[in-house]
Amino acid sequence: MVRLHLRSPYGRDEIREILVECARLSGLRDAYAEVICTRGIPPAGSRDPRECENKFFAFVVPFVWIASPEKQERGLHATISGVQRIAQCSVDPTAKNYHWLDLTMGLYEAYERGGETAMLVDREGNVVEGPGFNVFVVRKGGVFTPDSGVLEGITRRTVMELASVLGIPLGWRAIPASEMRRAEEVFVTSTAGGIMPVTKVDGKAVGGGKPGPVTARLREAYWELHRDPRYATPVRYD
Amino acid sequence: MVRLHLRSPYGRDEIREILVECARLSGLRDAYAEVICTRGIPPAGSRDPRECENKFFAFVVPFVWIASPEKQERGLHATISGVQRIAQCSVDPTAKNYHWLDLTMGLYEAYERGGETAMLVDREGNVVEGPGFNVFVVRKGGVFTPDSGVLEGITRRTVMELASVLGIPLGWRAIPASEMRRAEEVFVTSTAGGIMPVTKVDGKAVGGGKPGPVTARLREAYWELHRDPRYATPVRYD
Questions:
Q1: What CATH number was assigned to the domain covering residues A69-225?
Q2: How many CA atoms are closer than 13 Å to the CA of A140, on its beta-carbon side?
C-alpha cells in the first residue's frame, strides 16, 4: 500500500478483526474474505491523486474458486499467453493490485485457444504468473517457481514452507515457456483455490495428463494446514 | 472497445446524441463530456470476463483542465519519469483506457521532484506520453511527436491538421528523453486543455523558459477551431 501511495485507516490487527467480524456476521462457513483499498476520487476539478481520500473496503462472500473443485480434480487447462505481463518497471507486481487489463486480455486469448486460464510471460519469454495465481513446475522431483516479476502470494509462500517440511527441494528461478510446456508436473496457487494442478498447457498433456504425485502431496498437506491453529484464525459464529 | 473485448450498446451517432443531450440537460456552457465503458461484474462465483455485462456511462461536468489557465499561460513544469509506461505488448495504448497505475505513480514521483506533471518513457528511454496527454517537441521550427506506444489522441490529431494548414513541418518519430530536455519548445495535448506549453522539464527551463512561438501559434489556431462548424457540434440549450 505504501508503495502505491495508498493509506489504510486500519492496521494489520484491526483488519484481521474486521474480516473475522465480517465472516461472523455473514454466517458463511466457507467464505472468501477480501480487503480492497481504492484511491478514491479527487475534489471536483482536481486531477491530483494526493487529494483523493482513499477508501477501505472489506467483505466476505461465499467462497469463490478460481477453478471448480471438479476441474481441480482433473487439472486445469492453461495456455501460455502472447500478452506480456506488465513489466516490473511500470507497475510493481509485488504490491497486490487489480490492474489486470493484461491478465484479462490473456484470459480472452486463452478462451479463444480452447484453454481455461492463462499464464503470462515476461519480455524474455519466461512464464511469470496468471490472473490471480502463481505458477510452479516440477522437474526431477524438485519444485520451481519464478523468483521475480510476480506477486509473492501467500499460498506461494505456504508451498515453500510445505516443501521444506516435506523435504521436497524447491528453487526460485526464471521458468522459460518451453520448460513449462514439457514439465513433469505444473500447478498454480491462489487464495481462491489453494494448490491447483494444471494437466494441459497449450493443449498438450502435462506429464501423464493427470495431476502428479508431488502436486497431490503438496495439495493434501495444504488443506491439512487449515486445521493447524498456526495457520487458522477461528471465527466464533453465534 | 473491440480490442478490449468491450461492447457498447450504442453506436457513434447515438453516443454523440447522448453527450449533446447531457450537455443540454446540465445547462453547462463549459462542459467536459465523457463516455466510459466498464467491464461490469460477472455473476456471483464466476471469474469469467465473458460473463460480465459491460456498462456504458456518459456524463458532463464543469470543464476540467489538466492544468489551470494560469499555469497554461506560464507553461507547465514536467518531469521525465523513472516509471516506464506500460508496454504495448502488455496493454494497447491506442485503445483509450484508465489503466493508469504507471501514470499515477509517475505523477507522485513528479510531485516529489518539484514537478507538476509527468512524462513517462518506454523501455528504450524515449518519452511517450503523460497522464492524459500526448507530447510534442519543437526543433528547428518543426514539430515532432512519438509515432508509437501512445494513445493517438484527438487533440494530437488536431495538431497534425493545424500544422499542415499553417505550413509547420510535422514528423512522427521516437523522442529520446535527452532531446525532450534540450528542445526549443515542448507542449502537450489533451481534450482537457487543448494545446498546453511546457516551460520546464526536469527543473530546467525549456527554450527561454516561456511558451514559444510555434506553440503559441498552434494554441491560438486550436481555440479558433472551436468556432469552426467542421470541428464543433452545436448544443441547443433551452
A1: 3.20.10.10
A2: 2
